[in-house]
Structure formats: C-alpha cells, structure tokens
Design goal:
- The complex is a heterodimer of chains A (about 70) and B (about 250).
- Helix content of chain A is about 15%, strand content about 20%.
- Chain A has about 70 residues and is α+β, with helices and mostly antiparallel strands.
- Chain A has a single domain, classed as Alpha-Beta Plaits (2-Layer Sandwich), CATH 3.30.70.
- In chain A, the strands form two sheets. Chain A has a two-stranded antiparallel ribbon with strand order 1-4.
- The relative contact order of chain A is 0.37.
- In chain B, helix 1 packs across helix 7 and helix 3 packs across helix 4.
- In chain B, helix 7 links the parallel strand 8 and strand 9.
- Chain B is built from nine helices and ten strands.
- Chain B is an alpha/beta fold and about 250 residues long.
- Chain B has one domain: 3-Layer(aba) Sandwich (Rossmann fold).
- Classes of the chains: A alpha+beta (about 70), B alpha/beta (about 250).
- At the A-B interface, helix 1, helix 2 and strand 4 of A face strand 1, helix 1, helix 7 and helix 9 of B.
- Strand 4 of chain A pairs antiparallel with strand 1 of chain B, so a sheet runs across the interface.
- The complex binds thiamine diphosphate and iron/sulfur cluster (2 copies).
- The site of one iron/sulfur cluster has 14 residues of chain A, from helix 1.
C-alpha cells in the first residue's frame, strides 16, 4: 500500500504540498488533467518518503492521507 | 501500516470551493481537528460569515448557522446564551469582522462572551473581488487602492489582537499564521486552546490567522505564502496578545 495517497480528482494543483515536502518527491502531473480542470499532484518517488505528512499538513483541500 | 495523517471526522466530504492554494482550507481543517480532539462534535455549533467562507456550513459535519455580514459574534452570543452547553464559534474574514462587523466584535470581546472566534486576516475582501480591507497594508495595491493604500487618505491598518488586548473582557487573544508547516502546527495549538477555553467556561477567545488570498493578491499559491511571510508578518507579529490563564 502506498504511503501517500492523493485524491487526484479533488486536487487543485496548487503545489503547496510540493513546496512543503522535505524530500522533494512530489510533482505536478503535467500531462494529466482532472475533472475540475487541474493538473494534479503526484508522488514521484515513494521509496524516499519518510511519512512526515508535511504535504498533508499544507494541503488546503485536505486531499492527502499519509501512512507509515 | 499506520495512518499518520487523514481527514478529520468533523470535516465533511464536500469539496471546498476555494481558489487553488487558498489557505482558508487549512484553517477549516485545523478547526475540525480541534473539535475532533476535544470530542465536542455533538455539541459544536459554528456561525458562518459573509465572505469567501460563506459556504463553510457545507464543510463540517456539525451544525452551523449563517449570520448577516459581520453579525456572527452577535448570532453566536444568542446561540450560546440560549444553551450554554453548546460550544459556539464564528469563522470570519477581515472585511466581515474588522469592517462591517467591528461593533459586534468589540462588544462581544468587551462582554467576555464565552465564544470562540476564528478570524481570517488576508488583508483584502476576497469574495467581492479584492477591495481594500481595514487590514490592507500601507502601500498594498488592491482594486480600490490601485496606487497602493495611502494611510494619509485611508488611515492605517487595524491590528485586531492588539486593539482587543486593551479590553478587560477577553480571556485569550493570539495571532498565528499558516504559511508553513511549523506555523500551521502552532496555529493548531492556538485554535484548540481557544475551543478548550470555552469548554472550561473561561470566556472570549479569538485567534487571528494570517491567511492568503492568491487570486486577489494576483500571486501563485506558493508566491502568496512567501508574500504573507515577507509582508504580513512584520506588520502583524504572531504571538499571544492576551492570556488570562497566564496572569496571576
Ligand atoms: C450588508 C452587506 N454589505 C456588503 C456585502 C458585500 N460583501 C460580501 S463579502 C464582503 C467582504 C468579504 O471580505 P472578508 O470578510 O475579508 O472575507 P474573504 O472573502 O476575504 O474571506 C462584502 C463587503 C454584503 N454581502 N452584505
Ligand atoms: S496541496 Fe493538495 S490541492 Fe494542492 S497540489 Fe498538493 S494535493 Fe493538490
Ligand atoms: S478569493 Fe481569495 S480568499 Fe477567496 S477563495 Fe479565492 S484565494 Fe481564497
């Protein structure tokens, strides 16, 4: 199971999670587009995730959940 | 695997309508976390403002009422006095709380009303398209101050926590910010304490949260966080402005 689950259908692509991630492993899926018309955030390298939940702490839309 | 972060139970499943990166959403979540942790979901009643957060009643699983522009502290007073077992809070922007609703704010504070106020200071009227607010910074460009706020023409910004701290009524006044993880965590503590005070019948608590308005500041979401940190923090220092529990 993934450590970081992003509900990409509700993501607004704001990038606050990207900025907050200390491991810099979140990016914007430039070639994907959700029903709201946003390019959603994606986890690029989950191996490096330390489950700090900084991304989820900054997500204004509360669409990230984190497991350890 | 163990869950280290998930959506708080008090937050409903309705998607937030806010602009991408608007920190209203972070503050909504912090309120829900505080309510969950204190186990008061069943007796919490919120009062929605007029402003971008006008639909906040959609976003919680507890009861909410809707007040006319600026009148949330008066409506909250009525709800609280009708049944003091309820935990009653308002959620208001700076146009709502510090402009049209200034009288209700000051008098609720002066009465030491046992309610909790979550006050979003984003230096602008968000919902109506970015007009100057009482909290707009000197020199800040808005729709109604296109050359920058000129204090000799429009006066100076109102520092709500500092002003209310001159009153004997309030129990607890703190200004916090949500521009990074560290600040979000201390904002959470302050918001929780503001609810806890009410549970313990201590009286009026107000938390001023420095927040972003990406759209009307004309900035990308991450640039808006930076603007908050660089421009707002020096003018609106975070900290505790009054805490009666700390006074002998
Ligand atoms: C009696 C009345 N006057 C004016 C308005 C127009 N109005 C709607 S929202 C708003 C200001 C909102 O700004 P703020 O409280 O800062 O909240 P934000 O939208 O920035 O979150 C105003 C003036 C109104 N709805 N009702
Ligand atoms: S912070 Fe939330 S809404 Fe913004 S890009 Fe990341 S997951 Fe999407
Ligand atoms: S207009 Fe400003 S305050 Fe309102 S939702 Fe958009 S960014 Fe947030």
């Amino acid at each position: 199971m993934s450590k970081v689950i992003i509900q990409t259908d509700l993501c607004k692509g704001c990038g606050l999670c990207i900025e907050a991630c200390p491991k810099k492993i979140i990016g914007i899926a430039k070639h994907a587009i959700n029903a709201k018309g946003h390019h959603p955030a994606v986890v690029l390298d989950e191996e490096l995730c330390i489950s700090c939940a900084f991304c989820a702490t900054m997500c204004p839309d509360c669409v990230i959940s984190v497991q350890k | 695997m163990k869950t280290v972060f998930e959506k708080p139970k008090s937050l409903s499943n309705v998607p937030l309508h806010y602009c991408p990166g608007c920190t209203h959403g972070i503050v909504h979540r912090l309120v829900a976390e505080a309510v969950d942790e204190l186990g008061i979901e069943g007796k919490t009643i919120g009062v929605a403002p007029v402003g971008c957060a006008v639909l906040i009643y959609e976003y919680y699983n507890f009861d909410m009422a809707q007040a006319a522009h600026g009148r949330a502290p008066a409506v909250a007073t009525g709800i609280k006095r009708a049944d003091p077992n309820n935990i009653v809070f308002t959620y208001q922007g700076d146009g709502d709380l510090a402009s049209i609703g200034m009288a209700e704010t000051v008098h609720a504070a002066a009465r030491g009303e046992n309610i909790t106020i979550i006050f979003i200071n984003n230096t602008i009227y968000g919902m109506t398209g970015g007009q100057m607010a009482p909290t707009s910074l000197p020199g800040q460009v808005t729709q109604t101050s296109p050359y920058g706020r000129n204090p000799s023409l429009c006066g100076y910004p109102i520092k709500v926590c500092e002003m209310l701290a001159t009153l004997d009524g309030p129990e607890y006044l703190e200004r916090v910010s949500v521009h990074n993880v560290k600040f979000v965590r201390s904002a959470k503590k302050a918001i929780k304490k503001a609810f806890e005070n009410q549970v313990n019948n201590k009286g009026f608590s107000l938390i001023e949260v420095l927040s972003t308005c990406t759209t009307n500041w004309g900035l990308a979401p991450t640039a808006a966080l930076k603007w908050l940190e660089e421009k707002m923090l020096p003018y609106y220092p975070v900290g505790v402005y009054k805490d009666r529990s700390k006074v002998q």
